[in-house]
Amino acid sequence: MTFFGLTNLWIIGSYIGCILTVIACCYIGFKAKDLNSDDEGDE
Amino acid sequence: MAEGVSIPIFAVMLVVFAAVTIFLGLYGYRNTKNNSEFLLGRNKTNPLIIGLSYGATFLSASAVIGFGGQAATHGLTVMWLCFLNLFVGLFVAFLVFGPRTRKVGKKLGAATFADLLGKMYRSKGIRGFTALLIIIMMPIYCAAVLKGGVNSVAVLTGLTDYYDAILIILAVIVGVYVVYGGIIAVMYNDALQAAIMFVGMLVILIVTFNAVGGVTEGFTALSEISTGEASGVLPGFNGWTEVADFGSNEWMLVVTTFLMGVGLGVLTQPQLIVRFMSAKDDKMLNRSLIVGSIFMFLIVGSAYTSGALSNVFFMDEHHLAASRYVAGLGLGTDFIVPQYILEVFEDIFGGDFFICLFLLSLVCASISTISALMHTIGAAGGYDLYTIAENHKSKREKDSQSVRINRIVTAIMMVLVVVYCYLMPKEIIAKATSLFMGITAAALLPAFVHGLYTKGVPDKMAAIASITVGTVVYLFWALFINSSMSVFMPICKWITGDAVLFPDTWLAFCDPMVIALPLSIIVFAVMRLVSRQSEKSAGTPASQ
Fold it and tell me: A11, B74, B105, B174: most buried, per Cβ within 10 A?
């Protein structure tokens, strides 16, 4: 398996892991933006 | 070797940068009316500021220069640190720790990490110990970051004769805006510095891929460089695009010290935890993830990828791998990335401007971290320890409200950090980062997690036992076993004549945190079980 010239699965995995984490962070961030602002929920 | 940067261009950039920094410092000063605003600045921030400030504070020159140089030496395995920075340092920290920290901090009225832990456990001892740990250990990290930034600026500008002046000017700029502007100035300046870092590193990544012929071509060329060209690596190194042999000395150094030490240690960083407590609500934290994740991925990913690919560039230009070439110039690992930048931009249109932009990014990366660290150190002394001392003296239970004391302590500690710079060994940016993050994780992570998530009253005795074991084991391993860490204070050499007790074994390359953190967790769990047994037999809570 080759990923932009990289062949070691651990190294490829590190890049894919980074990209997936950024996607997940952006998804959560944008989702939070759409929520109403009345969920303060402090204790 | 390429010549230094264009001093006139860099001077103009610095003047503009200093003017904006002072303006933001004044903005912070005008908006800091009480101690709470000096320490947290709650309601004066927004998701963009929190995300950029968190990223800029987290990353520093250590990520760009220190770990970029390590990527050039040890290869792309270091990209796992980029993943850990994003997943543990951002995703887990913001979604698991952040909201709970913010809520508990607000509920308890905590303003610092030491204050938070102390109030969670209703323990002045835990608060005092955490503040002392910050005051004693954080200046090492702070001095390493300051020294790293100044070293690079002095060498790249060719102004090594003015080293002392650069060091003092940088320290004064940071000191003034932290002392007067408090957390508001720190966070707004962090955001400005993060934006400069973002542009600088984006340009470097594009230029790097262009210099090595493209993404696929660059990685293919990197994988084709013989391991015989490597320098500064340990047995077990398999190449820049391969992972080292499992359990080998190289694997131990890269995985336990660089990946785990920094990757996990981020969860208990006092200067980062304060960012959570600065947020107005959970949504603000979640929104910060967008800009924070993109910023961190670009900065760290660019630094490590460009660092590793610099080997392809140096092989083409000088027929030597990066660390070997830079060693030939009389420079160390921490200079690989700066030297690479100097040479790769040499023949590019506007190269002088981009080299200056990189240098400014470097200055920004350094001072964004130093300012946050200084604010944390100042608060640990001027707020936590001063509160404990005052309460003890006047037999009361009240937090200090004196902004002035915080400012005085911050200024004094800044002077001490400058003194530290002259006492520290060379080439220690990455190791000093790992040292501070490792010891805080080993000592405080189990107690912090338990305090955040336990239902009912946290177990004070378990926390004290865990903090004690984590600290003692970490310090023993760092001073007597680990060859990387023992350079900070060579006690073992003074006593035994050897740098460490078991040189040339895997133990000498195993990071202290890998041993101390599990022991700290085990001790916490055992003490918790004992407390529960006591509670059951006595029918009352045994923890308080």
Answer: B174
* Rounded CA separation B324/B169 (Å): 33
From CA B360, how far away is CA B200, in angstroms rounded? 8
User: Is-contact B206 B301, C-beta < 8 A?
Assistant: no
Strand partners, A6: A3
Q: Are B369 and B57 in contact (CB under 8 A)?
A: yes
The Cα–Cα gap between B447 and B466 comes to 7
Asked whether the beta carbons of residue A11 and residue B91 sit closer than 8 angstroms, the reply is no
**Of B426 and B21, which is predicted with more confidence?**
B21
Mean pLDDT for B311-321 is 94
Cα B474 to Cα B100: distance, rounded to the nearest angstrom: 27
Helix (H, G, I), strand (E, B) or coil at A6: strand
Kindly determine whether residue A21 and residue B290, on different chains, have CB atoms separated by under 8 Å: no
Any residues with CB less than 8 A from the CB of B313 and at least 6 apart, and which?
B208, B211, B212, B340, B343, B344
Question: How many residues belong to chain B?
Answer: 544
The two tokens of residue B512 are 């202290």
Residues 225-284 of B with CB under 8 A from A: 241-243, 281-283
- Tens-digit pLDDT profile for residues B227-278: 888 888 888 899 999 999 988 888 988 888 778 877 788 888 888 888 788 7
What is the pLDDT at residue B181?
67
| Separation of alpha carbons B121 and B108, rounded Å | 11
CB pairs under 8 A between A and B: 105
- Report the Cα–Cα distance between both ends of chain A, in Å, rounded: 51
In angstroms, the Cα distances linking B533 to B530, B537, B539, B543 are 5, 6, 10, 11
Q: Do A18 and B288 touch (CB under 8 A)?
A: no
Q: Quote the pTM value.
A: 0.81
